Amino acid sequence: MLMYVTNRQVRWVFVSILAYLGFRMVLRGLGREGILPITSMERTIVAAIFASVIMISLYFIFTYKYQETQDITLSIYQAQQENPGKIELKFINITSNLLKYGVFISIALLILGLILIFVHGGGLGIPLNKIVDPNGRVDTSAISIMSVVAGDLRLDGLSLMLTGLLVLIAIPVIMVALNLARFAMERDALYTVLAAITLVNLFLAIFVLPILILHK
Fold this sequence. Notes:
The protein contains eight helices and two strands; from the N terminus they run H-H-H-H-E-E-H-H-H-H. It has helices at about 5-30, 40-65, 75-80, 85-120, 130, 145-155, 155-185, 190-215, and strands at about 120-125, 125. The protein has a two-stranded antiparallel sheet. The protein folds into two domains: about 5-75; about 85-215, no CATH class. The chain is mostly helical.
C-alpha cells in the first residue's frame, strides 16, 4: 500500500489513530481515578466518536481553507540521486525485499495465529477469554523463546502471533545492520558510526532493558 498512497493520506490515517488512542488514554486515566466510571467498551465507543469528530472537522477545514496545498511526495522522490552506485543499488533491492516479504510473513503469521487462537480456545495454556480481555494482562515476559518455537511446531495460535511480532521487530534491526554494512563498504565513516550507534541502541532496548526492568 505504501507504494501507492501519498504523504497526505498517510498523515490523515496517522492523525485519526492518534486522536482515537489519545482520547481513549485520557478516558482510561480518568476512569482509574474514579472520575469517569465507564467500561472499556464505553471508552472505545466514546473515543471512536471523538476521533471521527476530529477527522471530519479537520477535513472540512483543510478542504475549504487550504485548497491550494499540494502533496510534494513526487518532487521529493524526483530529488533523489538518479544514478546510485552498484553497492547502493544492491542494498536498496535487498532492503526493499526484506521490508516487503518480512511484513507479509509477519501479517500472515498474525492472522493465522489469531484464527488458531479462536479455533483452539486459547494458546500456550492461556484461555481465550484472558487473551482477548483488554484487562487480562497476559504476561508475555514469562514466555520463553523456546516455548514459542515449540508452540509454532504444534501450530499454537499465540505462539504464531508472538513469532509474527518478533519478525516485525526484527525487520528494522536487520535493516539497520544491512545499512551499517553498506556504509562500511562505501567507506562512509560518519554514517557507519551513526548506524553502529543505532544498532547498539536497538540491542540495548530489546535485550538489556527488559532484563533490568524484570530484576528491578
